[in-house]
Each structure stands twice: as structure tokens, then as C-alpha cells.
Amino acid sequence: MESAIIAGTGIYQLPGFFFEQLVFETEYGQAFINVGKKDGFELAFLARHGLDHSTPPHKINFRANMKALQMLGVKQILATYAVGSINRDIPPASLTVLSDFLDFTSGRPLSFFEGGKSGLAHTAMDEPYCPSLSQRMQNLAPEFGLDIHPGAVYVATNGPRFETPAEIRMYAKLGGDVVGMTGIPEVVLARELNMHFAAVAYSINWAAGLEKNIEFVSSQMEVTKQKLSSLLIRTLQGRIVMTCSCEKAVMFMHAPENV
Ligand code: HPA
Fold first, then answer.
1. Domain spanning 3-254, CATH architecture
2. 3-state SS assignment for residue 232
3. Do 227 and 146 touch, CB atoms closer than 8 A?
4. Of 86, 47, 77, which Cα lies nearest the Cα of 182?
């Protein structure tokens, strides 16, 4: 199964799919991946926080999840993230394709390559999100009545707390457009596995300090999330021309012993 969707807060099913849940035992721990098929198209579906939203952002086992997707044969992934808006041009209820990130997480395992048997590698991050998949998604969006803001910088925080106004002012100065708690290390691990990984963020609030009170618009976004899910499925279906360097991102100093 070559394609996967990783869904964030508020997306727990996909239109037209009935999923069976598989449990994977990886060297990093357990992962729960849902697999399904529609009109001959096979898809893996991972609800990042669990189908019952029981896993907080800082407790997600990203390495087990990504390893399990690799074990399934996944080569291309579309991910969604619920975020807060830092950039005034990306207001709550809008969608944006991610093009870059700022990593402010701490204490999370960031790599499959820990030296020794697991190998040692440096992974290129000049294009962290697959430009081919991102462009395809952007091109198909109008067919689903969606307008997607291009090229946003995602600020990854640890959570589970929200940010302070001073933190958001700092992130804005550094060029951050949206802020969320789960984008890192997911995209980094995908690149370490030579996968094509693109992501779309849906904003559910203004980030702290931008408005008097934080107001969440999640409940007004059901139709948008439905359309987005259909767009993600369509983007992964059919022959995709990849003109990116995602499959050559990893530079090994020492190859892993077990591959
Ligand atoms: N900050 C961090 N993560 C988030 C936010 C936010 O404002 N909104 C949704 N996820």
C-alpha cells in the first residue's frame, strides 16, 4: 500500500472508506494504522491522536507510527494539522499548504539514526515538504471548491499548553505563519525514510495575543474538512509525477546494519 493520510484533530474518518485497524509492533513500540480500499485504491489512514483523540501531542509515538507506515510499503503521505494563525493573511477557517518549518519542540526523539546499528545520517531539509505532492494538491483544490493559501511556515511547539502572546510575537518575527504541536518530528522522520510527505494546515483560531480572547472555529469547519478529505484522497490517486528530491534526502555517514 503506497499511500497514506495522517489526520490531525477533528478528522477521524474519510469519505467512502471503511477501515480495518492493524496493530504494528515496531522496534519503537506499537502503532495503530487503519487500512482500507475504495474503488481499488488502497489507503492507510492514521489518526495522529487516536480515533478517540486520547493521545496528547507530546505523547505521540511518531517513530512507531512512521516505521509502521514504512512496513506497510507507504511511499507518499499527505498530512493535516489543526493550527493557530500567526499570519494575518491566513485567518481562522482557512487552509494553507506548508512549505517550511521552525522547530521549537524539545525532548522528542527526532531521528531513526542514533548511531551504532541504526546508522548515522544527515537528512536534507531544504525542501522539507514534497513540492510535487504539494503542487498537485494545490492544483486539484479548486475542483473541490477549496482555496488553499500557498507556502506557509509551520512553527512546531511542544504543547500541550498553548503559547504566550510574547512567544507568538517572537514566532511572527522569525517568519512563522501558523503554529501547531504535532508537525515535528513527523515530517523529519518521513524524509529519513525517503518518503514524499506534504501537509496542509487548517487554522482553527488566532494564535495567542492576536485577538482579545481565543475563539475556536472548529465547529464551523465540518464542510471544509469533508472537502479537504476528498481532496487528499484525490491527490494520492492516479499516477503522480514526482520531480522532487525527496527520495535522495538522506546522506549516510554509516548505513544501518539491519537493512
Ligand atoms: N497553538 C498551538 N497549537 C494549536 C493552536 C495554537 O494556537 N491551535 C490549534 N493547534
1. 3-Layer(aba) Sandwich (3.40)
2. helix
3. yes
4. 47
Residue 162 near ligand 1, beta carbon < 6 Å: yes
Element (H, E) at 53: none
Is any ligand 1 atom within 6 A of the Cβ of residue 8? no
With 0.70 as the threshold, say if the pTM is over it.
Answer: yes
Task: Determine phi and psi for 199, rounding to 5 degrees.
Answer: -145, 145
Whether 258 has a pLDDT exceeding 80, the answer reads: no
Q: Where are the domains of the chain?
A: 3-254
Determine the residue type at 239: R
pLDDT at 259: 57
Neighbour tally for 16: CB within 10 Å: 14
Of all atoms in ligand 1, which is nearest to the CA of residue 57? 3
**Cell numbers linked to 185:** 518530528
Rounded Cα–Cα distance for residues 131 and 9 (Å): 24
